[in-house]
Amino acid sequence: MYNFLILIAGFTFLVKGADYLIDGATSLARRFxxxxxxxxxxxxxxxxSTPELVINIVSSLHGSTDIAIGNVLGSNIANVLLIxxxxxxxxxxxxxxxxxxxxxxxxxxxxxxLIVMVNDPLxxxxxxxxxxxxxxxxxxxxxxxxLYYVYRVARSNRxxxxxxxxxxxxxxxxxxxxxxxxxxxMGGVLVVEAAKNIAQMFGWSQALVGLTFVAVGTSLPELMxxxxxxxxxxxDIAIGNVxxxxxxxxSWALGFSAVIRPIPFQAGYxxxxxxxxxxxxxxFLWLSLAKTPRLNRKQGLVxxxxxxxxxxxxxxxx
Length: 318
Hints:
This protein is mostly helical and 318 residues long. It has a single domain (2-317), classed as A middle domain of Talin 1 (Up-down Bundle), CATH 1.20.1420.30. 81% of the residues lie in helices and 3% in strands. It has helices at 2-31, 36-61, 65-90, 97-118, 120-124, 133-156, 170-202, 206-218, 220-231, 235-260, 269-288, 297-317; strands spanning 93-94, 129-131, 263-265, 294-295. α2 (36-61) packs antiparallel against α3 (65-90). 49% of the residues are buried.
């Protein structure tokens, strides 16, 4: 029970840290007359992906690489099936064609790039699969390319995203950014240590804990952002947040972690990557084949049920 309380405390620090970081950074950006749209597409997307980045860096430094890989893959699958499913159940989502034909294919391409990178034994007959520093650099280049794409989108689209967040004073904004970073750091250490202890206590693998508890916990910022967007009928923000976060989790969180320390890859994770590709392709087909791209409540329910089936397969594998 103690370790589960530590895990909950760690997630609390992560969620509140990300919230403070977004709030402070948004206020500073708006002080410098940066458009709300650009703030929404960058700071909010980065903020909701920061827990995954922190967990991955801490896991890599502690040698818990299974938690790092499992966190990214499990979080991305949870984003598509669980979070979009819950969001669609709250309010049907009508999505712009740009998101369907640009961002979702980018997410699929990033995942395909990852499955090529980690299967070194099949491609070059190396001893183990590895997300090497070179792979991390390539993923980081993808991150900067995506950042440039977001910048171009923000320049071409002059509509604004209105935030409920108040405009803070510069000193308060800087303090909130510092508190956010501290909260994220503390939360990352607590979650990784608690996850390792829980795995040892129940005889579970770190992969199982990373794909389930840690993945869902680090997806809480995406869940909150998407639910609020759905309640305000901002479907583009809801799905853009999820798809953008999935791209950043691979290119930013996993890429930067691998640059710091190469991450060994177990062949068993190939199944999770394939599932991630399949569910993202399913999302693309649902939206691209419809006259009006949308996710309704029935599709949301199917996505939630698919996520429960995925959890069952993880337990069965274990």
